[in-house]
UniProtKB/TrEMBL annotation:
Protein name: alpha-glucosidase
Pfam families assigned to the protein according to its UniProt record, in alphabetical order: Alpha-amylase, SLC3A2_N
Presence of the UniProt keyword Transmembrane in the record: yes
Record gene name: CD98hc
Catalytic activity: Hydrolysis of terminal, non-reducing (1->4)-linked alpha-D-glucose residues with release of alpha-D-glucose
Classification via CDD domains: AmyAc_maltase-like (cd11329)
Species, as recorded: Drosophila melanogaster
SUPFAM superfamilies in the record: (Trans)glycosidases
């Protein structure tokens, strides 16, 4: 009892020590940590350690609402808040305007450039400059031709500045004035006539003889070289000298890499460009004399005729006089002259290059010294009644040998006169390959193909899928097929099939995943439906299943499709 009263008295004293006002609030505000520590266990003593949570540091409770409200209307803080508000929206609007300006001002993706006119084609091949006539313009119009090719007689090559020759060329250019067809000339620059100024200058001045293959003071023939295709020596006597004459009698070969001829022939090209000529094709390029060595020709290891003897041209290999090293560089030199005279003019060859690597630049593997090479026998093989090789392999080999990026001339004059193939089928198939068709106006490819077919061909050749599309070949012997497809979306692809046989053939191609099974008929050769029964006939804009399609004999068909997107 006494102890209880003391304890009660002590409790009351403690309450007085705490005070009577806000006891609960004080306790709520304080969060003390109390620790009881044992003292001497014999005496029963204990220590009490009172401290705050969080390592003895008062907990941060932030400002109360009442404290914050004291600053709500303070002029300094009001002004600062407005500054931050305006800056935020100004920066946001600035970023928006900047993004819009970047979108508007960013350079657009350039549209694909159209092909230069000489790659668009086709080109109409006529005869001589001396036989041109006004009716030729209508012939070129039927072909929808970009160029009209005429041959300048070899004897006039270095006489183009003479008034009578100049007048002929001006007349020719005037015929095509106002049309979309440009004039192209076939030139023979590698020899000059005995009575030409070049030869007369060389006879009078020994320093001018470097323009020719000239051997002074020789009593015996310099070597065993023969006239091209003949059985007589290629050397002609001029006074006490021998001069190389591989072609006609009285015409002497020129060294096409000599400074004199470069200046002379360069002046010819520039003058013709000034007269309005916009394209040149050179003849006899494989015979261009670029040599200083006069070694004898070696016997051919594979002659065409084993009955030939030492006095026959075909008996020798002709490695000393044909396809000489550096030819591509020499041609490129003349190409540069033409391009400097007119950036729209072109410079090429009129005959099969046969050995493409010789026509390429020595310092740039794969690049030609000319614009449009002509190579291969694919046109001949395609027009045979019964091709003896796989057309797909022949085409693949032609493109591979000439260079994957080359733009060839497809010489339709190589089509056999007695070909069983529909000429319009040949024209369609060849015209959609990389290259430009050259159509001789006296050949079957012109005489037996309508103007409408050539207009269809021209419209397809102007599309992005043709001009810039990838070429892929497909095999299904005896058929041959290829596709032209531009990688960029929005451009339809073209699938072109040719049947060289006399029977309908199933199009059993192995189709890759990016080609659909069903395609739309775009165009087909003129005799296509005449060569098929009713079940196999097709119609423009009709849909066909490639797996079920049978291609008409001696015919071509052009299908369009939308490439399948890869998943």
């Amino acid at each position: 009892m006494v102890q209880d009263e003391k304890a009660a008295h002590a409790d009351g004293a403690d309450e007085q020590m705490l005070g009577s006002n806000g006891v609960e609030d004080k306790l709520a505000e304080r969060r003390d940590e109390v620790k009881f520590i044992k003292g001497d266990h014999q005496n029963g003593d204990a220590k009490i350690d009172i401290g705050t949570v969080n390592g003895g540091k008062p907990a941060f409770t932030g400002m109360s609402k009442e404290e914050l409200m004291k600053y709500a209307n303070d002029p300094f803080w009001v002004r600062l808040r407005w500054i931050f508000f305006v800056c935020f929206w100004a920066i946001w609007v600035g970023m928006l305007v900047g993004a819009i300006l970047i979108i508007i001002g960013a350079p657009k993706c350039a549209a694909p450039q159209p092909l230069p006119w000489y790659k668009r084609g086709p080109h109409a091949k006529f005869a001589s400059v001396e036989t041109c006539r006004p009716e030729d313009v209508q012939v070129a119009k039927k072909l929808v031709s970009a160029g009209a090719i005429y041959e300048l007689p070899a004897a006039l090559t270095y006489d183009v500045k003479k008034p009578e020759v100049e007048e002929k060329i001006k007349h020719l250019v005037a015929l095509y004035q106002g049309s979309d067809t440009r004039v192209i000339l076939d030139l023979t620059p590698n020899y000059a006539a005995k009575n030409s100024q070049l030869v007369q200058d060389a006879i009078a001045n020994p320093e001018k003889r470097s323009a020719f293959v000239w051997v002074s003071g020789g009593k015996a023939l310099p070597n065993n070289w023969l006239k091209v295709g003949g059985n007589r020596s290629a050397w002609e006597k001029v006074g006490d000298n021998y001069v190389l004459s591989q072609f006609e009698d009285g015409y002497y070969d020129l060294k096409m890499n000599s400074t004199i001829i470069r200046n002379e022939f360069g002046a010819v090209l520039k003058h013709l460009v000034a007269l309005g000529v916009r394209g040149f094709r050179l003849k006899n390029t494989k015979f261009f004399a670029l040599f200083d060595s006069l070694e004898d020709e070696q016997i051919s290891s594979s002659p065409k005729d084993f009955s030939l003897g030492p006095n026959e041209y075909g008996f020798y290999s002709h490695r000393q006089t044909t396809f000489l090293s550096g030819l591509g560089d020499v041609l490129y030199d003349y190409l540069s002259i033409v391009k400097n005279a007119s950036d729209e003019a072109f410079f090429s060859v009129a005959e099969d290059v046969m050995e493409p690597q010789v026509y390429q630049l020595s310092g740039d593997s794969g690049a030609y010294g000319i614009d449009l090479p002509m190579y291969g026998n694919f046109v001949k093989v395609l027009s045979k009644s019964k091709p003896d090789t796989s057309l797909q392999k022949e085409l693949d080999n032609t493109l591979a040998q000439s260079g994957t990026d080359s733009w060839l001339q497809w010489n339709l004059a190589d089509v056999y006169v007695d070909t069983p193939q529909d000429p319009s089928a040949l024209a369609m198939f060849l015209s959609l390959l990389p290259g430009v068709p050259v159509v001789a106006v006296d050949a079957v490819a012109y005489q037996n193909v309508t103007e409408e077919t050539y207009r269809q061909i021209t419209s397809l050749r102007k599309t992005a899928s043709y001009m810039h599309g990838n070429l892929n070949l497909y095999q299904a012997d005896p058929l041959v097929a290829f596709s032209r497809q531009r990688i960029k979306s929005g451009n339809p692809g073209y699938f072109v099939i040719f049947n060289p046989t006399e029977l309908p053939q199933a199009s059993n191609f192995t189709i890759p995943d990016n080609l659909p099974d069903k395609m739309t008929v775009s165009y087909f050769s003129e005799q296509y439906n005449n060569n098929m029964d009713n079940s196999g006939k097709v119609a423009h804009a009709g849909r066909v299943n490639l797996k079920d399609l049978k291609v008409a004999p001696h015919s071509s068909i052009i299908l369009t499709y939308v490439p399948v997107k890869a998943e």
